[in-house]
Amino acid sequence: MVRTQVQFTEDQHKHLKRWAARSGISLSEAVRRCVDDRMQAEKSASGRRAMVREALAVCGKYKDPEGLADVAVNHDQHLAAAYRR
Questions:
Q1: Could you tell me if 9 and 16 are in contact, meaning their C-beta atoms sit under 8 angstroms apart?
Q2: Residue 20 class from Cβ within 10 Å (0-12 exposed, 13-18 middle, 19+ buried)?
Q3: pLDDT at 45 over 80
């Protein structure tokens, strides 16, 4: 582990200390968990952004020449018809 020094606002320190006490963990462990949570959230968000980019990259590239041309306008009717099959 790497030792570092961090400064918190009074409010941040108070809330972090309370949360650590309720969780039965040290203040250091509370900070590590907060950092881990944030890093995981950013990793998940960037993964989702990549998936959306990939999906958008193929949108409209593959056209079925015999497919329905009015799906955007009449999607409810086409969906109902698909479920009736």
A1: no
A2: middle
A3: no
